[in-house]
């Protein structure tokens, strides 16, 4: 079986890729797993440590081909506040519950959950159901953090 032990981060490689693989957020958080690309290339992903693959990353196969990661849209909540202060209060409530979220363009994206949606509406948030790619922020205790759309680990 073809192996893949290297990820080329979004913006750090030039295409076109030889194929794509479309995965939701849970499927993109991997270390070692047999995978099949959208075009049928079977390979073993075998990374030194688990990581979240993000849209635009490329999986480098042992035969030299690149498989571009595509984020599969999934059911999410889009949350907006009345103003910046209100949005900060909402983010605090989400963080206090340790819910993975993505913050972008003045809104918060998180997994669809009717209990959480009702809580946020009770706080005065504007909540809408959407289908979108989900790239949540790393937690405070994760091995790396994001800068400008890519991740840096620290020893």
TrEMBL record:
The record's listing under CDD domains reads:
UreE
Gene Ontology molecular function: nickel cation binding; unfolded protein binding
Q: Provide the primary localization.
A: cytoplasm
Q: Subcellular localization, per the record?
A: Cytoplasm
A Pfam match is: UreE_C
Q: Which GO terms describe its cellular component?
A: cytoplasm
Its job: Involved in urease metallocenter assembly. Binds nickel. Probably functions as a nickel donor during metallocenter assembly.
This chain's protein is named: Urease accessory protein UreE
Please tell me the species this chain comes from: Aureimonas phyllosphaerae
